[in-house]
Protein 1
Amino acid sequence: MILNDDQLDRYARHIILKQVGGAGQKKLLGARVLVIGAGGLGSPLILYLAAAGVGTIGVIDDDIVDLSNLQRQIIHTTDQVGQLKTDSAKEMIKRINPDVNIIRFTERFSKGNAEDIVRDYDILADGCDNFDTRFLVNDVCLKLKIPFVSAALSQFDGQISTFKGYLTGAPCYRCFIPQHPGNVGNCAEAGILGAVAGVLGSLQAVEILKELLDLGDSLAGRLLLYDGLSAVTRTIKLPKDPECPICKEITLVQKNNLGAKK
Amino acid sequence: MINITLNGDSHKIQKGQSLFDLLQDLKLDPGKVAVERNLEIVPKSTYQDIEIDDGDRLEIVHFIGGGKTI
């Protein structure tokens, strides 16, 4: 692939970064990222991935744009209320960057379709609104050995981490949240300061781009906590749970294989 | 008694308490929170075995990520 003149202009601020360069930009143009949910997190995330020139962006969402979404879901606009979020997101992506190939999945992410969808992607970004889907993302990504960057929001704060539970020593999502915590409140019930979604969705975009470009320190094995009210960000260690029912066996097999090689 | 810092505030607790005991005392459901001990999330399967040390810095991290029940 050769970058054309428009691309050299469009991505000039990336290309000038010695850690990205022309080679990194080509990598992004060849990359495939799947985004679960075109909502509060997915909106800024998809916008930045598209602007960055991520070549293929898959978007899963079966929802319709509602007026009450627009306070934080900035990929959708007032004239798109009532449209499918996947259609609305596609329209905006095309306006931002025609280089991007967008693949729409206007369906629930479920056991029935998860593996078939996920296997075509390099990395997932989980910005969904429920734990069942998060657990399913974790299961499928573990099985297919695909990393995912997961973010979550609450009123004024957020959490984000990268999960590569298929690696020895790296936690999976269930090492952090082993079981469905029950009702812990959602945006509709508890409310959310819209811009907080922007902070976490943008952090998610940064982490996805870092993984694609193999830049800096991965958030795998660490959890970043953002507290908007106190304006404090902390990053703490997130170890693998040695008794995690989901990823324990996968890494045990790996350890045994490594042992056999020695 | 030992001194710990819990969510940024100093507390005195009985020596020999496990993380599980502490959550019970605080009436926190271990299914809804993680415990951060000295800048590290404690694996849930070890709550009963981990004895809180003098000077430990603990933070309760509430699980977020959607409110829908199964």
Protein 2
Amino acid sequence: MSINNEIYAFDECSILHMCKLVIRDAFKIFFPKDFIAHKNSKQLNILLEHLREKNKVKAKFVPNENFDENLVRSYNDLLQKQGNVQILGTSFKKEILEQLEKFYEKLSEEFIDIEKNEDIDSIKIFFINNQKPLKKDPKVPEDDDLKIISAYCDYNSIGKKYFITEDEHFWGYDDLIETEYNFFVIKEWECDKLVG
Amino acid sequence: MILSKDEAICTILEFSKNNIVTSPTKLNKLLARLNLDFIPIDIDFTLNKYGSYNAELADLNENKYFKVEPYILKTGVNSKKFILKPEGKAFFLNSVKPKLDKILTKEDFEILQNKIRELSDMRADEISDNEHKKLLVDTEDRFKLEQKVNVVYCDMYDLYEISKSLPENTLVDISLKALIEYCYHLIKFIKEIRFKHIPEGYDYEGYMFDYYFINNINEIIPFLKQQITDVKKDKIRINKYYQYFVNSVSERNYPFSLDNPNLNKLLAS
């Protein structure tokens, strides 16, 4: 498949970070606001609205075998320093995860799917040979990250390709990815700069 | 997840023989019956001598999904029947079925369908007779009810204690733990607040969800025990039970609800 326009692909967690979560009445007492949003939610939603208005292509990567893990990770990110639920804590978690899941399901309809590339042997060697001192361990992109890099690199697009992510495994190597794999990594918290 | 009133009625009519329910009483009983199958529906039921009851259902008017046809019984009594329209069928397939698919396996869906079909062929009093026995609402069953509340509470207490050490690595792990946590606090609330003093006479003020919850928590205890030990968890069934207990009632009619801003005080009391 080929796209005659710019394409904006999002990391799964970044899609989840767009969600503004409603808190059910029983739990509101434990929060300063009636909703919870990720710290980068504002920037992500500015970009999302812009892409909708301009009818730009949005993409995500499939299959998403790590979806459960990403959901739980997003929950943990979201709840950091935001409230301390003292009753029915697991039920609260279930409610939030359910909202995130529904949000992802609904928003996904707007995104095209790009199949992850299973063939990552050479790309893996490249990153091992060009390892950088990241804060995150392991210091090189993991297999699932490499499948995304490989797939996006191979994806035909005449316009520029952007990848929005919070993951250091991508933005920590943004220069190398741009030169070697032909797409631009955009840090989630700076993604609103892509708008005008 | 909860089925709206129209969604619930279309489900009953879709499953009933010839897509017809022959009286408002019968429709009332069949809708109430969905509670025993853990299907959350947005309809309140109070206790009536003849079974679960919702007064508004007697005055249902025709809408785009179903017809209401008046007719006269052989006994000369006026009645009305409810008939699913093609729009109601389409509504069921396009809107209701996808919701049910999230809480029912294919097998469970067929079981429910057959059960409603079978019940729709019974007389209204036969349906409620069975329900009353099952839910222990009759005065002669007071002792059994009290015993049941105590036993269910003790079982849930044990499960809740065990669940505290369960992992929360996946969505299904969290759902199972949340289900146990919610059911434990719900039965504790019923035991210590709602049924602290079970009335000796007939519970005319009774709210059916107290009875549904006691019965339904009791029903899932063996399943919960099994799921705690099973490596591969039954995601759909866990979700079905969770959706039922959490979403069947709202703060306007039942204080133990995630929509009650004062739930924390209730749990502390």
